[in-house]
Amino acid sequence: MNWLQTLDFEILEGIQNMLKCGMLDAIMTVISKLGGGIIWGVFGVLFLFFRKRRWDGIAILGALAVAAFLTELVIKPIFLRERPFMLNPEHTLIVLPPFGTSFPSGHTTTSFATAVQFFRINKLCGAAACGFALLVAFSRLYLYVHFPSDVLAGCVLGILIGWGCAKLMKLMQKKFSKNKTA
Q1: Which string of b and e fits 6-43 if b means at least 16 CB within 10 Å?
Q2: What's the rounded Cα separation, in Å, for the pair 146 and 154?
Q3: Coil vs helix vs strand at 64
Q4: Would you state the pLDDT for residue 37?
Q5: Between 36 and 74, whose confidence is greater?
Q6: Distance of CA 71 to the CA centre of its chain
Q7: Per-position DSSP letters for 134-166, written without gaps between them
Q8: In this structure, are residues 41 and 67 in contact, taking their beta carbons and an 8 Å threshold?
Q9: CA pair distance 177, 51, nearest whole angstrom
Q10: Do the Cβ atoms of 139 and 117 come closer than 8 Å?
Q11: Sign for the pseudo-dihedral over CA of 5, 95, 68, 131
Q12: Which of 56, 62, 131, 154 meets the CB 3.0–4.6 Å disulfide criterion with 104?
């Protein structure tokens, strides 16, 4: 076991030993399910129905799609990192074992990519979305389905994807408004 994996397991075991309880089991399970893309997708679709928020909906759904594509179809197949519960079969999961590999955390990546979009739309909403994204990231550790390094990588990747999608959306809006007035 290398130093990173040792540190990852020490953090996971610390979370399990200090925080594990029935109430948090229920809360973290719900947060994790919602943060897997459901809540972000719902907001994105809802925004599409309002003319003033349509571009925001496109930005949210675009960031969600790019983040999911990159994590699930590009990065995870390269690293093929096993999940913590696979490497420590003595641990009993309280959720169904997720499919796929561990690095990076897809839930965390999509949550932060879309939270950046909310921050672009409104700083207060963005702060709330970032807070929820942090809860999603923590839920993945609490549920023992990701290593801390998976979650940290997902956070950084999500922020970068969100920032890139925000820049792209700004360019598209500018181009669309020029074409509309011409």
Answers
A1: eebbeebeebeeeeeeeeeeeebeebbebbbbebbbeb
A2: 10
A3: helix
A4: 86
A5: 74
A6: 10
A7: HHHHHHHHHTTSS-HHHHHHHHHHHHHHHHHHH
A8: no
A9: 14
A10: no
A11: negative
A12: 154
